[in-house]
Design goal:
Largest sheet: 2 strands, antiparallel
Strand order of the largest sheet: 1-2
Distance between the termini: 41 Å
Shape: globular
Radius of gyration: 19 Å
Structural class: mainly alpha
Number of helices: 12
Number of domains: 1
Number of strands: 4
C-alpha cells in the first residue's frame, strides 16, 4: 500500500470553533439518547430521511450535480436537491461545492481542506472543528463556486442553510415527540456526517486503487454502501465529472441506478459517464459519454 506522507498542519490546527464543537457535541449526545426510544417507525423515518439527505441531497445533488455538473436537470429539481442537501447539516450549497472543488484542485496537497496527510483525525473531523481551516475563509470559498454564487436562491440557502433542518425538526417534534426527533434528526444526521467524513478520510487511506491518480484516493466498498456510491473514490478522482462512480458491475452505486431511472423519465439529461474498456490492476482506458435524454 502506498504510504501517506504527512503535510504540515501549521495552517490547519488553529483556533477551535466553539459553536461548531458545541453543535457537534449536542447532536452526538441526542443521537445516543435515541437508543433509549427505539421503535420501528422511528427507524423507518430515520432511514428514509437518511436517503433523502445523503442520497438525494449530498450524493446526487451537492456532489454529482452542483459540484461536478455530471448531468443536467430542471432548475426546480436542482433547487429541490439543494434543499435536501441542507438536511445533512453539512452546510449550504456554496460552501459544500466550493470546499469539494478546492479538494479536487489540491487533493492531498497542503491546500486540500481535509487531507489525511495532516492526520486521519484532521481529514475526518478536525478540519470542521478548527476555525483556521479553509472552510472558514468565505472569500476563498466563493471563488470556487461562482456559478452558484451568482444565483440569489443559492446565496440565500447557503446563508440560511439551517432553516430547512430546523423546520423539519419542529415538524417531527409536533408529530412524534422527542423520540422521533432523536432518531430522524439527531441520530440520522450524526450517521450521515460520519459517512461523508469517511469519504474524506478512509477513502484516502485504505482500499484499492484502479487508477494511478496523483493523490491517495481509493475505492472502499463499505464506504460506498454507507454513502450511496460515493466510496468508489479513486474512480471519482480519475473521472470527476462522471455521474457514474461505480464503473464495474460489482461496484454498487445506488445514485447511478437512480440517475438511470430519472433519465428514463426525462427528469435528467446529458448524463456524463466514464466508460471502462478494460480493468487492469492500476489504470484503465476510459472515455466520457454524454447520454442525451
Amino acid at each position: 500500500m502506498e504510504s501517506v506522507h504527512l503535510v504540515s498542519a501549521r495552517k490547519g490546527y488553529g483556533k477551535l470553533s466553539a459553536i461548531t464543537c458545541l453543535v457537534l457535541a449536542w447532536f452526538h449526545l441526542q443521537a445516543v439518547a435515541a437508543f433509549w426510544s427505539f421503535s420501528w417507525l422511528n427507524a423507518l423515518v430515520a432511514f428514509v430521511l437518511y436517503w433523502v439527505a445523503g442520497g438525494l441531497g449530498i450524493s446526487l445533488g451537492y456532489h454529482r450535480l452542483h459540484t461536478h455538473r455530471g448531468f443536467k436537470t430542471f432548475r426546480w429539481f436542482e433547487y429541490a436537491l439543494a434543499i435536501c442537501g441542507t438536511l445533512s447539516l453539512e452546510g449550504g450549497p456554496i460552501f459544500w461545492v466550493a470546499t469539494h472543488r478546492l479538494h479536487h484542485q489540491h487533493s492531498d496537497q497542503p491546500d486540500d481542506p481535509h487531507t489525511p496527510r495532516v492526520s486521519g483525525f484532521w481529514a475526518h473531523l478536525g478540519w470542521i472543528m478548527f476555525g483556521e481551516a479553509h472552510h472558514s475563509d468565505s472569500a476563498r470559498m466563493a471563488r470556487y463556486a461562482p456559478d452558484l454564487g451568482k444565483d440569489p436562491f443559492y446565496r440565500w440557502l447557503t446563508h440560511y442553510h439551517w432553516v430547512p433542518l430546523t423546520a423539519l425538526g419542529f415538524s417531527l417534534l409536533a408529530v412524534g415527540g422527542w423520540s422521533l426527533v432523536n432518531w430522524a434528526i439527531f441520530l440520522r444526521v450524526v450517521l450521515g456526517l460520519h459517512s461523508t467524513y469517511l469519504v474524506n478520510s478512509a477513502t484516502h487511506m485504505w482500499g484499492a486503487r484502479r487508477f494511478a491518480t496523483t493523490d491517495n484516493s481509493r475505492n472502499l466498498w463499505w464506504v460506498a454502501l454507507l454513502t450511496f456510491g460515493e466510496g468508489w473514490h479513486n474512480n471519482h478522482h480519475a473521472h470527476p465529472t462522471s455521474a457514474r462512480h461505480g464503473l464495474a458491475w460489482y461496484e454498487f452505486d445506488p445514485t447511478w441506478l437512480l440517475l438511470k431511472v430519472l433519465r428514463a423519465t426525462g427528469l435528467v439529461w446529458d448524463v456524463r459517464v466514464a466508460r471502462v474498456s478494460q480493468i487492469p490492476q492500476t489504470e484503465t482506458v476510459t472515455y466520457l459519454l454524454s447520454l442525451k435524454g
